[in-house]
Backbone:
């Protein structure tokens, strides 16, 4: 299912890119004309996080509508690449995380070669247990999370920019026998890419 979503988003990006700055989307008889200051962005990310005492990688994919290259709003989906051992068990009990959220991002001076962006995500985190440990009374499988952050981005060509930054993943209300808020809350190192059509300044001069 995830591979199908990635393929669909990639096709959307290629269709939009092929139309240049007109922002026209044509799929068969279906046609949309977007404003010239509205861009569709595809935003893959890789989070390196400390979750329940284990360092894990979380892969993510977002699709965003970007207004004037400064304000972006959309949805993100993330998943841990490996299972995570539960902190209070000694057997084979493990879990994985799935995250779905609304993503907002503000970018300061987006046309500079190097600039800063400030992402914020609000979403739901789902826990998928594996092993033989049964759930106890009061255990929940879904939790709300908040994630502010900051990223330094570099624009190399007009179709893609790359970023590296930090985000604070905060899960405030955890009611579980095996997991606590401190197990799911963490500071992540985030590597990201943003695909779209950008009007960056073609200059080697850095301005802050």
Residues:
């Amino acid at each position: 299912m995830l591979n199908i979503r990635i393929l669909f988003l990639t096709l959307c990006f290629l269709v939009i890119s092929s139309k240049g700055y007109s922002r026209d989307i044509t799929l068969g008889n279906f046609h949309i004309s977007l404003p010239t200051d509205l861009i569709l962005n595809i935003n893959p990310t890789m989070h390196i996080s400390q979750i329940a005492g284990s360092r894990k990688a979380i892969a993510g994919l977002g699709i965003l509508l970007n207004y004037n290259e400064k304000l972006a709003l959309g949805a993100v989906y993330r998943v841990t690449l490996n299972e995570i051992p539960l902190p209070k068990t000694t057997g084979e009990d493990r879990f994985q995380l799935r995250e779905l959220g609304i993503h907002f991002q503000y970018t300061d001076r987006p046309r500079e070669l190097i600039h800063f962006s400030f992402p914020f995500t609000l979403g739901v985190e789902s826990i998928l247990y594996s092993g033989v440990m049964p759930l106890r009374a009061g255990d929940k499988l879904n939790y709300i999370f908040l994630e502010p952050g900051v990223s330094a981005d570099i624009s190399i060509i007009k179709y893609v920019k790359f970023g590296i930054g930090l985000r604070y993943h905060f899960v405030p209300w955890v009611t579980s026998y095996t997991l606590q808020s401190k197990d799911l809350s963490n500071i992540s190192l985030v590597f990201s890419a943003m695909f779209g059509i950008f009007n960056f300044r073609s200059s080697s001069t850095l301005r802050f």
